[in-house]
Amino acid sequence: MAGALQLASCTSQPTSDGETMTSEQTATEKLPADVHSYAQPAEAVTKHLDLDIDVNFDQKTISGTASYLIDNLTGTDKIVFDSRNLQIENAYLGDNIEETTFELGETNQFMGQSLTVKIKPDTKKVTIKYKTSPDAAALQWLSPQQTAGKKHPFLFTQSQAILARTWIPIQDSPGIRFTYNAKVKVPKELLAVMSAENPVQKNSTGVYTFEMKQPIPSYLMALSVGDLVFEKVGPQTGIYAEPATIKAAAYEFAEMDKMLVAAEKIYGKYRWDRYDLLVLPPSFPFGGMENPRLTFVTPTVLAKDRSLTSLIAHELAHSWSGNLVTNATWDDFWLNEGFTVYFERRIMEELYGKEYADMLNVLGYQDLKHTIADKGADNADTHLKLDLEGRDPDEGLTDIAYEKGNFFLQNIEKAVGRARFDQFVNDYFNTFAFQSTSTDKFLDFLRSELIKGDEELAEKINIEGWVYSPGLPEGFTAPASSRFAKVEEAYNAWKSGKPAAQLTTKDWSSHEWLHFIRMLPETMSLQQMADLDKAFNFTNSGNSEVLAAWFLHSIKNNYATADKALETFLTNVGRRKFLVPIYKALNATPEGKKKALAIYAKARPNYHAVSTVTLDELLK
Questions:
Q1: Which residues pair with 156 in a beta bridge?
Q2: What is the four-CA torsion angle of 17, 19, 23, 28, rounded to 10 degrees?
């Protein structure tokens, strides 16, 4: 679809700290149409959600009601929601619960169905009674055996990109924002938490209430239920985890408060009141998910040395880029992730110095080069501005959005200087706070507030080359790292025949080890593999990044010593970042594919739908 929709003005509402915000600006503000949602917000749009649900672990379902306060902007006789594999039981209007009619449209593979509810010109409230499917794509139901504690079941949601519609009938577009309250009933021995103001301990009833005062898009709707405890880290920060995990998590993430202080120093006040983490079981498909007030995070970052906590800096940065200012459509995904990677690296530089941030930039560049090579240097999917119409928006979840977006912003910073760029970004976050914005609107803001008609500066920034062209622009200078230079010296010494055990590797971080492993030759003898493993114990590493990189070499070189550890890793870890490259490497040979299918048959029940959709296609 083409064209633009107009969003109505909404009443300004004070945040908890007294600031004023709006979920949209005025009726004249325009955002591009969202091709991944059936909603028609230019006609009737949701403004607030009251959710009342019951979580049933026996049936693996959520049931209840979603009640919306709406703005009927045009006096239309219908409001359209997104729904996928939901059982819609009834629809009602107003506080008097007047029954109305509804209609489900044709089913699309990844978009689901439109849910059209008949309303009146003066309708202010719509309530939908519904029940989820046991295989709802957003919901991961875990047996006790799949948890750290092994005693109680566990549930978590993953709504991004367009999976909120599989557990709530909702206008499932990042361009639509709403506040919400919720009442959630769960088994009494479990605790429920959401992307909202949360309880810190279990109660005797199993009924929990939640409030999210700041308007959010649907993909930030989140719920988790499990045997959880809470540990405070700082005045605004804390950690939820299973009792078996909480001590390790509290140690690993002890510097959360320092990260929050560093972030506020760069881009202003944190506007979501609290910043807490929820450490999920290993099946979580991502490193982290930036659900406001409660980041969901993978246990694969529990490296016991705080070396992988840049991921927490990334999710914290989303509190500004993504949660505060949101991509209007999934074609604009780089606005969320490019800004967030840039900000993450700034936080890490503030805390640990430029040399540390330089390592992250080099590793990111390596990932980006790999993605460009994999997709093809001329592929339009290597543009920052994407065209995902007719496709699952998860196809845009690549290092193009993350790393190419980051390097574009670093290029602007280089062109104008850090102080001027920081002022620009602060202005951007403040101007578009609690709104969704598009690539076009950002670029208009860039031209009017920073470039200001300076043709020489415009040429340096090179919007066309970065945003609308494939690959990396001509003249791009690859990042370098002084710490990695020393790693390369050690690698060259090993390559020249120096025994691995004699290399100078003391005090290497995870990033240095990862760089070393990535440099290893594609083909190595079993003796070389064994010598490296004996010297550095790669196969038994407790660091997921190191393990995943090492397994790629063990697969390609038929290093059978790592087979058992590989199977254990694939069976227990559901993070897509690790799974896809490892299964691809296995899938490259007939013998490897046989092994991959055998492991996948056992491991698949432990994976989230976000991972299995990709892996089912890969392994056929």
A1: 140, 224
A2: 180
Give the DSSP H or E segment for 453. Answer: none
User: Which DSSP string do the residues of 256-324 spell out, in sequence order?
Assistant: HHHHHHHHHHHH----SS-EEEEEPPTT-SSSEE--TTEEEE-GGG--SSSTTTHHHHHHHHTTTBTTT
Q: How far apart are CA 258 and CA 398, in angstroms?
A: 29
- 517 pLDDT exceeds 90? yes
Report whether 335 contacts 321 (CB < 8 A). yes
DSSP 102: E
Q: How far is CA 458 from CA 191, 418, 440, 463, in A?
A: 53, 17, 16, 8
Task: Copy the structure tokens of residue 80.
Answer: 């359209």
pLDDT in tens, 237-247: 999 999 999 99
- Count other C-beta atoms under 10 Å from residue 99's C-beta: 10
pLDDT tens track for 573-588: 999 999 999 999 999 9
What's the CA gap between 303 and 533, in Å, rounded? 19
Half-sphere exposure of 49 (CA within 13 A, CB side): 31
Q: How far apart are CA 490 and CA 519, in angstroms?
A: 11
pTM summary value: 0.92
Active site residues: 315, 402
